[in-house]
């Protein structure tokens, strides 16, 4: 075992060997082979190429060198082509902070039986008057950046549960092709995380319709890992044990505290009563999502080849049309 594997338990080390083809005897050579490919993409600014950073991309692609490099290139290309998203890319940014405090994302305390981190999203918590969908995406990416530092999660990965209860048709109409493409490219094609399952629960018919639209743009592996449970929580429990789930998902634990993960990231910057003025948001991020006019809402509670990613053309009006029309 090398120092790069020091954070792994014996069980996870064995899993990395069997499932990811990770070999401590060739680990430094594997990393160097990926690093040597950087010169083939002079159009991309590779801001990090240290051993620990490259290793997470190798693990995400089961130590296939070229696939790991392609993911590394897409990671930086995505950030290079969406610069506005990554300005003020920190938990204290007003839009990101409010999204985090509303549980975008949440993280359960217990891992599943495969050692995967369980992320949760309660879609109806989106307060359109305080932050945008882009802010939610930024909050999720920022959270993943923090979580992926854990080598155990680099190997074991994540599971995502999205609860669509009370997510309105009007909210769904804001999910434009441009916004969905931005999310797919950022999460599926450009981030070194292994997602073992994406579970939809309590989804209305119009979320089914949206999924039908985006399905062709998902990789086959991703499609196989998306489960549409509807109101059938028993099917969810067959895959994730109810002993580790909060009551919202028919689990045995108390209701989920939306601020749990936000407190971890924000630490002393977290405050329950803070109000955020929409005018203080990062203006460029709003430009990305210019068709989202804030409305108040109260609630209680594809592998892309190198060079294919394209910056959103704000003149592509067809991409800014809602997938669901509010006639």
UniProtKB/TrEMBL annotation:
<keyword id="KW-0446">Lipid-binding</keyword>
<dbReference type="GO" id="GO:0007040">
    <property type="term" value="P:lysosome organization"/>
</dbReference>
<dbReference type="Pfam" id="PF03765">
    <property type="entry name" value="CRAL_TRIO_N"/>
</dbReference>
<dbReference type="InterPro" id="IPR036865">
    <property type="entry name" value="CRAL-TRIO_dom_sf"/>
</dbReference>
<dbReference type="InterPro" id="IPR001251">
    <property type="entry name" value="CRAL-TRIO_dom"/>
</dbReference>
<keyword id="KW-0472">Membrane</keyword>
<dbReference type="GO" id="GO:0031901">
    <property type="term" value="C:early endosome membrane"/>
</dbReference>
<keyword id="KW-0968">Cytoplasmic vesicle</keyword>
<dbReference type="GO" id="GO:1902936">
    <property type="term" value="F:phosphatidylinositol bisphosphate binding"/>
</dbReference>
<feature type="region of interest" description="Disordered">
    <location>
        <begin position="276"/>
        <end position="327"/>
    </location>
</feature>
<keyword id="KW-0333">Golgi apparatus</keyword>
<dbReference type="Pfam" id="PF00650">
    <property type="entry name" value="CRAL_TRIO"/>
</dbReference>
<dbReference type="InterPro" id="IPR036273">
    <property type="entry name" value="CRAL/TRIO_N_dom_sf"/>
</dbReference>
<protein>
    <recommendedName>
        <fullName>Clavesin-2</fullName>
    </recommendedName>
</protein>
<comment type="function">
    <text>Required for normal morphology of late endosomes and/or lysosomes in neurons. Binds phosphatidylinositol 3,5-bisphosphate (PtdIns(3,5)P2).</text>
</comment>
<dbReference type="InterPro" id="IPR011074">
    <property type="entry name" value="CRAL/TRIO_N_dom"/>
</dbReference>
<keyword id="KW-0967">Endosome</keyword>
<comment type="subunit">
    <text>Forms a complex with clathrin heavy chain and gamma-adaptin.</text>
</comment>
<dbReference type="GO" id="GO:0030136">
    <property type="term" value="C:clathrin-coated vesicle"/>
</dbReference>
<dbReference type="GO" id="GO:0005802">
    <property type="term" value="C:trans-Golgi network"/>
</dbReference>
<feature type="domain" description="CRAL-TRIO">
    <location>
        <begin position="96"/>
        <end position="257"/>
    </location>
</feature>
């Amino acid at each position: 075992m090398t120092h790069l594997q020091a954070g792994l338990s014996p069980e996870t080390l064995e899993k990395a060997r069997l499932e990811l083809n990770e070999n401590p005897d060739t680990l430094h050579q594997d990393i160097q082979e990926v690093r040597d490919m950087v010169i083939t993409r002079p159009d991309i600014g590779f801001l990090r190429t240290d051993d620990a950073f490259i290793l997470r991309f190798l693990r995400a692609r089961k130590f296939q060198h070229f696939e790991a490099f392609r993911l590394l290139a897409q990671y930086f290309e995505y950030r290079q082509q969406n610069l506005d998203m990554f300005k003020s890319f920190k938990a204290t940014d007003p839009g990101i902070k409010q999204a985090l405090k509303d549980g975008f994302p949440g993280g359960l305390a217990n891992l599943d039986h495969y050692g995967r981190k369980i992320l949760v999203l309660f879609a109806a918590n989106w307060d359109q008057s305080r932050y945008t969908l882009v802010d939610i995406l930024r909050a999720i990416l920022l959270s993943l950046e923090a979580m992926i530092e854990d080598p155990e999660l680099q190997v074991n990965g994540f599971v995502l549960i999205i609860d669509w209860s009370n997510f309105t048709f009007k909210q769904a109409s804001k999910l434009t092709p441009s916004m969905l493409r931005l999310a797919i490219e950022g999460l599926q094609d450009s981030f070194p995380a292994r997602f073992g399952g994406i579970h939809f629960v309590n989804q209305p018919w119009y979320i089914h319709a949206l999924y039908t639209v985006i399905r062709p743009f998902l990789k086959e592996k991703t499609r196989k890992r998306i489960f549409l449970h509807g109101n059938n929580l028993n099917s969810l429990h067959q895959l994730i044990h109810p002993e580790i789930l909060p009551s919202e998902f028919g689990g045995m634990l108390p209701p989920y505290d939306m601020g749990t993960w936000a407190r971890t990231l924000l630490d002393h910057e977290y405050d329950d009563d803070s109000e955020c003025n929409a005018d203080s948001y990062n203006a460029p991020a709003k430009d990305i999502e210019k068709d989202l006019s804030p409305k108040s809402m109260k609630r209680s509670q594809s592998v892309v080849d190198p060079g294919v990613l394209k910056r959103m053309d704000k003149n592509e009006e067809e991409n800014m049309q809602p997938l669901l029309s509010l006639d």
